């Protein structure tokens, strides 16, 4: 397990973000809700074991806070972006990517996938929502489908049966 030098990585990332032409406000967001929580998390750790695994634990803890409603999506997203950038700079020495990797939680079963695809297609045809709005709806619906899947509900018929009084 190779030790991370978070303060060195933070400075490299901040310098790279400036070269990306980000606004002052965006840079301040990165500092306040991206770098600062990670820095605080690392300060609670034994400095001898600060590693990529420690960084992953920080992100998982933030995700739990987000899922519990203790952290807004934007805060979770910026923290994940900074963690992803830290990992990239740690592994490659440079920062090229600004894309946040998708949080892979699994695959929907074919039944739920078809429902979601049908919903998105119908909304696109109707033109009642922007693509960005549909993207947000898709995430929310997917989370609901995963929650149902975690309860072993393979179809919505089971939900309908449970909802009948």
How would you describe the overall organization of this protein?
With 165 residues, the chain is mainly alpha-helical. It has 2 domains: 6-92; 110-163, no CATH class. It has helices spanning 6-19, 24-43, 52-67, 73-92, 110-126, 131-150, 157-163. Helix 1 packs antiparallel against helix 2 (24-43), helix 1 packs across helix 4 (73-92) and helix 2 packs across helix 4 (73-92). The N and C termini lie far apart (56 Å). The mean pLDDT is 79.
Considering the chains and any ligands shown, give keywords for the structure:
165 residues, globular
Please state the oligomeric state of the protein chains shown: single chain
Q: Count up the domains.
A: 2
> Poorly predicted ranges (pLDDT <50, ≥5 residues)?
none
Following the backbone from N to C, one meets helices and strands in this order, namely: HHHHHHH
Separate helix tally: 7
Number of strands: 0
Secondary structure class reads mainly alpha
Average residue-wise pLDDT:
79
Gross geometry: globular
């Amino acid at each position: 397990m190779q030790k991370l030098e978070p303060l060195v990585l933070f400075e490299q990332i901040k310098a790279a973000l400036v070269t990306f032409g980000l606004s002052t406000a965006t840079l301040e967001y990165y500092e306040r809700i991206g770098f600062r929580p990670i820095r605080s998390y690392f300060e609670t750790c034994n400095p001898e074991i600060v590693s990529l695994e420690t960084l992953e634990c920080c992100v998982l803890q933030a995700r739990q806070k987000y899922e519990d409603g203790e952290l807004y999506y934007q805060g979770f997203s910026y923290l994940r972006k900074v963690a992803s950038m830290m990992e990239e700079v740690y592994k490659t020495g440079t920062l090229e990517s600004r894309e946040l990797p998708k949080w892979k939680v699994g695959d929907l079963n074919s039944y739920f996938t078809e429902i979601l695809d049908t919903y998105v297609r119908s909304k696109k045809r109707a033109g009642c929502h922007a693509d960005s709005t549909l993207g947000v709806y898709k995430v929310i619906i997917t989370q609901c489908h995963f929650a149902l899947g975690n309860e072993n509900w393979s179809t919505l018929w089971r939900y309908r049966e449970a909802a009948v009084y």
